[in-house]
Amino acid sequence: MFDKDRWTEVYMALKSNKLRTFLTAFGVFWGIFMLIIMLGSGKGLENGVYYGMGDFATNSVFIWAQPTSKAYKGFKQGRRYHFNNDDTKAILDNVPEIKLLAPRIEARGGNANNNVVRGLKTGAFSILGDVPDVNKIDPVNMYDGRFLNDIDLLKNRKVAVIGKRVNEVLFEDDDAVGEYIKINGIFFQVIGVFHSMHSQGWGEWQDQCVFIPFTTLQKTYNYGTRVGHYSITSKDNYTASYVEDKVKALLKRRHKIHPDDERAIGSHNVEKEFIKINQLFMGISGLIWIVGIGTLMAGIIGVSNIMLFIVKKRTKEIGIQRAIGASPSMIISSVITESVVLTGLAGWIGLVVGVALLEMLSLAIEKSGGEQPMFTHPEVDFKLAIMALGILILSGILAGIIPAKRAVGIKPIDAIRDE
Questions:
Q1: Phi and psi for 103 in degrees, rounded to 5?
Q2: Which own/partner contact pairs does 52-55 have at CB distance under 8 Å and 24+ positions apart?
Q3: What pTM does this model have?
Q4: Which one is predicted more confidently, 175 or 334?
Q5: Distance (Å, rounded) from C-alpha 48 to C-alpha 374?
Q6: What would the DSSP string read from start to end of 229-278?
Q7: When comparing pLDDT for 74 and 189, which is higher?
Q8: In angstroms, what CA-CA distances link 325 with 318, 319, 320, 336?
């Protein structure tokens, strides 16, 4: 490995066939370059999709009441009902697999009219009654003040946490914390301002929301004990689907709903969506590796071909080496070294150029300003890069084995006579 003459011999052998060496090396370079670019692009797409989801709890499920679709125990089909505070207590008492339970209720009318007032400024925003745990299930970015806490709920405080858009409309981005806004004729003190961690539609809607304590909204809008919907997460050892089924069964019993009525309770299982997305990106990653390695193998075959050509051209030289005492292992190692050098050098250049291009693309996306919800931070994991380089070196060894066997298979006397 550290023999200077051997490296000189490798250099001269590759130099003597410049065009063939360049074209073969380019095949290897292109294979590793495309593999790195495709892996980075796949990761950029994955980052963009997950960025759009914010820090949503992946083990969460949302449940709400809908009209029944089957008659049951004297109740007609199409009956409307509502969840209530007693349901909340019953769920916590009977479903120990739940980690977080966050009831929510939205003020009637939604954002259909100018329901929030500050001085002469008004805005149409969604008013949501929430509990502190909702910010652990679907977190928002608090850039001023604080979120709701348990004391706010316990004392029915008239406090509000407003979205970025609400702040822009009512306060023109001035310091809103400590100021007052009027909701449904009642003054609320602003205790925090947030920015949604989601992108596009959901993020835009969330930035136009006003969060007030769940208990305060029930009293302000005379909702009594009504609950709009539940946000639920499961404990680590249980799936969200298991918790979803158990909660639905409990609520059906409490509200006298037919056990087979699938429409009476609506739900959205985020865990299932994340599993589908993960499977999608696993498929994309697998396809990228298949295409990338296929392209890489084409370059490796080219390396093997040029090594066969080099061995054939050096037949007499190999014969002389064998005649003066060179062992088969020395001939094999010499040929394999040339093969590894060619693939390793070309692959390393392809790896460096590919990573550099991804970094430049990532920097360009950041400097462009604005959000990139569908493609952001294209990158290649360091372990994957090392794996790709390892595959390349192994391929270089394999590419040199056939030419090396051919070299040692030549009889010294026949090699010397070769013209």
A1: -70, 145
A2: 52/198, 52/199, 52/200, 52/202, 52/203, 52/373, 52/374, 53/198, 54/138, 54/139, 54/196, 54/197, 54/198, 54/203, 55/138, 55/139, 55/197
A3: 0.70
A4: 175
A5: 4
A6: EEEEEE-TTS-HHHHHHHHHHHHHHHTT--TT-SSSEEEEEHHHHHHHHH
A7: 189
A8: 11, 10, 9, 19
How far is the C-alpha of 139 from the C-alpha of 54, rounded, in Å? 8
Query: What's the token pair of residue 344?
Result: 């390793």
Cα gap 36→394, rounded to integer Å: 18
Q: Which residue has the tokens 């059906």?
A: 252
For the stretch 212-223, what's the b/e string if a residue is b when 16 or more beta carbons lie within 10 angstroms of its beta carbon?
bbbbbbbebbeb
C-alpha to C-alpha distances, 197 to 42, 52, 135, 273, 369, nearest whole angstrom: 22, 8, 11, 18, 16
Using the predicted structure, report yes or no on whether residue 333 has a pLDDT greater than 60: yes
Mark 95-104 as b/e (b = at least 16 C-beta within 10 Å): beebbbbbbb
Q: 237, 232, 194: which is closest to 54 by C-alpha?
A: 194
* Lookup: tokens for 255: 């509200």
Written as six digits, the tokens of 235 are 């404990």
Average pLDDT, the chain: 82
134 alpha-carbon distance from chain centroid: 22
Neighbours of 175 (CB within 10 A): 12
Give CA–CA dist 78/66, Å, rounded: 9
Please check the confidence at residue 97 and state whether its pLDDT lies above 90: yes
Q: Count other C-beta atoms under 10 Å from residue 70's C-beta.
A: 17
User: In angstroms, rounded to a whole number, what is the distance separating the alpha carbons of residues 270 and 59?
Assistant: 7
SS3 label, residue 400 = helix
Q: What is the maximum alpha-carbon separation in the chain?
A: 107
Q: Give me the DSSP letters along 304-319.
A: HHHHHHHHHHTHHHHH
Residue 299 to residue 26: CA distance in whole angstroms: 8
Residue 197 in contact with residue 140, Cβ under 8 Å?
A: yes
Q: In sequence order, which residues have a C-beta less than 8 Å from that of residue 230 and are 6 or more positions away?
A: 62, 63, 64, 83, 88, 91, 101, 102, 103, 104, 247
Q: Are strands 60-65 and 265-269 parallel, antiparallel or unpaired?
A: antiparallel
Please, are residues 49 and 277 in contact by the beta-carbon 8 Å criterion? yes
33-37, 48-52, 98-102: segment of lowest average pLDDT:
48-52
